[in-house]
Specification:
Pfam families: NMT1_2. This is ABC transporter substrate-binding protein. InterPro entries: UCP027386_ABC_sbc_TM0202 (IPR027024). The chain is an alpha/beta fold. The protein contains twelve helices and eleven strands. The strands form three sheets. It has a six-stranded mixed β-sheet with strand order 2-1-3-10-4-11, sandwiched between helices. A three-stranded antiparallel β-sheet has the order 8-5-9, sandwiched between helices. α4 links the parallel β6 and β7.
Length: 295
Amino acid sequence: MVFGANVTLINPLGPTTIPIAPIMKGVITGNATVTVKLWQNTDEAIALMVSKGTDFAVLPVTLGAILYSKGINFSLLGVYEWKVFYLVASKDATFTGWKSLDGKAVYTPEGKGQTVDILMRYMMDQDGVIPDQDVKIFYLPPQEIVALFRSGKIQYAALPEPFVTMAISGGMGRIVLDFQKAWGQEMNLPDRIPIAGLFVNDEFAKANPQTVLDVEDMFENSIEWMNENTDEALKLSETYLAIPIPILKESMQRTSFYYVPISKCQKEVEIFLQKLNELYPQGMPSLPGKGFYGY
């Protein structure tokens, strides 16, 4: 067992940097010394995980599940991002349900099979709308979608925050669907989606159980500090993000970060992954084994 261990944690570069900035800047400390590396794309994250270049990883839950099924054994310790996806419509467009988009197009961040894409396809299917046939779905970088939306060239977009706020600010559009609320109603679950979580290398975890608890504790404390000190947390993350603080601050009102250990949300995660597997097996070809939920 290692006490006061030095560990590495990889985290996506983007708005999810905000909850971990208190650790990166030394505001939150603990029994472990955590070095945070920011990854810019999934290939980079996977390379670090496969090469044992990291002990912990912050990942989309869907990506972690896919990797676990492929033998990259990082178990899910807990979920911390629960709310971020919305459908926006331009100021002159209407939305009264997915059937109202028949013959129209929705733009969403590349590529096919990302979380909001699968959610949208599932909800269209439930409403009797055939994705790609009745409603076209196009994939572009989120910054490009925002620019096209604001210039009036596209009417509908399914986006995560802070791109939602960037798209509709100044009265350029409005939110017409909260994916979290729609999912909760559909599944008879709380209005939330297990979007991203904290993962640990199984081999490391088995050898260092106390360090895992220490890092999990620091991670949860960092998120709590961010929620209690949002302005300060945004200032701490300013060096990592190229998005204006006023936009980030507004977007945080529609984003939910709070840590729930897997022991308290496993059923929700299982239902989420099962539905994705049923609807879009190309994106979620198989479900992870039980080890995914506890090393």
